[in-house]
Design a protein that fits this description.
19% strand; 2 domains; kinase; lipid metabolism; 13 helices; four-stranded parallel sheet; nucleotide-binding; lipid biosynthesis; 13 strands; Rossmann fold; 39% helix; lipid-A 4'-kinase activity
Length: 348
């Protein structure tokens, strides 16, 4: 939900709000189920791995895609990322240019993905995938696109934030699920549990009952030695800003003040003025996330000053078992090769 926060009741036990919205939720879920089941997505001539999630909001898809992309490159493939560029104006297909593009044109996540491998933003994912292949990419990684099924993927890996889970387990608008969980699980191939927490146990049990492989990973922050012992003003507009704040606290940093904004928040001059003013008055160091910093790229005035002064906490996603990740990549490639054989038919 660009520039806004998920309704708080989504992440509480179901109450009157969810019950009131249940009819609309049922209708939304029925349409989502129909579209997922009846989709006949076009195929492209390369392995396609979809990194998806079950809910609206942050779940770790982008760090997962980056970690997988690095492993794909290490395996000898020419990896490329495909994304819709949520929050950007470009419809594409458009290759992200780190020297010129901003979050307003391509979205914040593509700017992070493009640091690792060629990244194409496209509202029509099949056209975007073909554009990547024309660029020489031979292994496509989709950041999102699981529910829309607008291009055929050979494997769907579902990212689950174990701390955030799936909220109240209801479908939009009564809850954060993009479609009924049981229907989404039918189209998934594996589940990636990110971090620790009990909020994701319902999904983990459902995946186990469906005999889906369950992998584990964790978010590893890079140290910020320049901020040791300094009072901080931490600000963020991501899916769950509190997770960012808790990460800093867990690293031993002293958070004097925090500012939380809605996911994909577009920072304004007024925001920058407020943050810089409080930092100066309280002698605080500013710190934010990589996604937030990406939205401040190529800004001027007070926004530009905010970007220059803000320290950035970089994080990486690490799979608990690198062997499992390698096996996943091999499985995606094998499924693609079987798909090619089926398409070519028996020899004449």
């Amino acid at each position: 939900m660009a520039g806004s926060e998920a309704p708080p009741f989504w992440f509480r036990p179901r109450g009157w709000q969810s019950r009131l919205l249940a009819p609309a939720s049922w209708a939304y879920g029925a349409v989502a189920r129909y579209r997922m089941d009846r989709a006949r997505p076009p195929e492209v001539m390369a392995p396609v791995l979809c990194i998806g999630n079950l809910t609206v909001g942050g779940s770790g898809k982008t760090p997962t895609a980056i970690a997988v992309g690095k492993a794909v490159i290490e395996a000898g493939y020419r990896a490329g990322f495909l994304t819709r560029g949520y929050g950007g104006s470009v419809t594409g297909p458009h290759r992200v240019d780190l020297d010129h593009d901003t979050a307003l044109t391509v979205g914040d996540e593509p700017l992070l993905l493009a640091r690792t491998a060629p990244t194409v933003v496209a509202s029509r994912r099949a056209a975007g995938a073909r554009h990547l292949i024309e660029m020489g990419v031979d292994f496509v990684i989709m950041d999102d696109g699981f529910q829309s099924r607008s291009v055929h993927y050979d494997y769907a890996l579902i990212a689950l934030d174990a701390r955030r889970g799936i909220g109240n387990g209801a479908v939009i608008p009564a809850g954060p699920l993009r479609a009924p969980m049981i229907d989404q699980m039918r189209h998934a191939d594996a589940l990636l549990r990110i971090g620790d927490g009990e909020a994701g146990e319902t999904v983990i049990r459902a995946a186990a009952r469906a005999a889906k492989p369950i992998m584990r990973a964790g978010i590893v922050p890079r140290p910020l030695p320049a901020l040791e012992g300094r009072p901080l003003l931490a600000f963020s507009g991501i899916g769950e800003p509190e997770k960012f704040f808790d990460t800093l606290r867990g690293m031993g940093h002293w958070l004097t003040m925090t500012r939380a904004y809605g996911d994909h928040h577009v920072f304004t001059e007024a925001d920058a003025e407020d943050l810089l003013l409080h930092a100066d008055l309280e002698n605080l160091e500013l710190v934010t996330t990589e996604k937030d910093a990406a939205r401040l790229t190529y800004t001027e005035g007070r926004l530009g000053e905010l970007r220059r002064r803000a320290h950035v906490l970089a994080v990486e996603l690490a799979f608990e078992s690198p062997v499992a990740l390698q096996s996943l990549i091999e499985e995606v490639a094998e499924r693609y090769h079987r798909r090619r054989i089926r398409r070519s038919g028996p020899p004449l």
